[in-house]
Amino acid sequence: MPSHHHRYILLFKPFNVLSQFTDKEGRSTLALFGPFPKEVYPVGRLDFDSEGLLLLTDDTGLTHRLLEPRFGHPRTYWVQVEGIPTEDALRQLRSGVMIQDQKTLPAEARILPLDPAFPERSEPIRVRKNIMTQWIELVLREGRNRQVRKMTAAVGYSTLRIVRVRIGNVEIGGLQPGEHRELTSAEIHSLRHSVQLS
Question: Can 47 be counted among the known catalytic residues?
Answer without folding.
Answer: yes
